[in-house]
Amino acid sequence: MAVRIGVGRETAVGERRVALTPETCGKLVKAGAQIAVAPGLGASAGFIDQAYVDAGATLTDTPFADAGMVLCVQAPSPDAIATLKPGAVLVGMLQPEADPVRASALQDRGIVAFPLEKLPRTTRAQAMDILSSQASMAGYKAVLIAAQLTPRFFPMLTTAAGTIRPSKVLIIGAGVAGLQAIATAKRLGAQVEGFDVRPETREQIESLGGRFLDLGVSAAGEGGYARQLTDEERAEQQRRLAEHLRNVDVIVCTAAVPGRPAPKIITAAMVDGMKPGSVIVDLAAETGGNCELTQPGRTIEHHGVVIDGPLNLASMGATHASEMFARNVFNFASLMIKDGALAMDWNDELLAKTVWPPRPQSTGETP
């Protein structure tokens, strides 16, 4: 029996992205699935209802009714979860452990949840990696915000009034968001540096035209992530960084440690030592911020230094962010759809390691 896939409008404040685009809708229909979407689903991301209908979807005010699979960007509210079909599959950025009420609602309904933020970061999983695809948009938007907030030009300009030197931009963290930020700042003509405690990122930073800022402290960890620094390492890093920041015009912070609060890299004392007119854009604001003074969701000024703590930056580029997110979701959902029907192979590590609550692997396929 063909699986019915339901997609409702996102309800999180400020969320403009969608988990299903007309493109991926058409692909799921070709795979044999039936698609039900709420009217106005993609309006905030630039996708009209007729495009979904043309792709084979049905418009309905109750897209979750009888849906064997539900796709979302952010998790539905507990009340919405209570309306899902018992045992339905839910795919999206769910963060069940962050909200006990949501977790309880999922368990009470017997929902087979796949929080894609838990997806193993393997080569095979790259096409399903929502963290990477959305971080790319966030890094891009962060630099544009910084360029808007700074009272300086990014590029060097030669004018009749004299030569304007390029802005000095420092990107902290060289993950996906940081590398995109480096590339964007470089395209805008800035003098760009990249800093990461993982020494293996030097080549990536330099390949994008940035200069690797070496502070003599390494925190290479497992799986491409940074480990937490010791107290001594952190003190030495901060001393050297504080000296360097005195001549930086713009900082974009992107450093994160999975499952933990963002590491505090820029102290209030460091900000005090920066030039008036300097700008800090802190992508890590959602998990506390890399700057000690960051206020999530607010733009403040501290002794002449502007500090911005944007939230859900990827949503600011809703059209392209949705296209990437929806392709990630489609690639993952395809692992569970065979001949149009729902079928899960728990021997597939991507399913087994992403599902919540975790379950032991079983043999064979379970429809």
From TrEMBL:
Keyword Phosphoprotein: no
An example Gene Ontology molecular-function term: proton-translocating NAD(P)+ transhydrogenase activity
EC number(s) on file: 7.1.1.1
GO cellular component: plasma membrane
SMART domains, sorted: AlaDh_PNT_C, AlaDh_PNT_N
The keyword Acetylation belongs to this UniProt entry's keyword annotation: no
Domain Alanine dehydrogenase/pyridine nucleotide transhydrogenase NAD(H)-binding positions: 147-309
Catalytically driven reaction(s): NAD(+) + NADPH + H(+)(in) = NADH + NADP(+) + H(+)(out)
GO process terms (BP): NADPH regeneration
Name assigned to this protein: NAD(P) transhydrogenase subunit alpha part 1
Gene3D superfamilies per the UniProt record, alphabetical: NAD(P)-binding Rossmann-like Domain
Family: Belongs to the AlaDH/PNT family.
Keywords: NAD, NADP, Nucleotide-binding, Translocase
Function: The transhydrogenation between NADH and NADP is coupled to respiration and ATP hydrolysis and functions as a proton pump across the membrane.
Xref: InterPro entries: Ala_DH/PNT_CS2, AlaDH/PNT_N, AlaDH/PNT_NAD(H)-bd, NAD(P)-bd_dom_sf
CDD domains in the cross-refs: Rubrum_tdh
Ranges of residues in domain Alanine dehydrogenase/pyridine nucleotide transhydrogenase N-terminal: 6-138
Source organism (scientific name): Solilutibacter silvestris
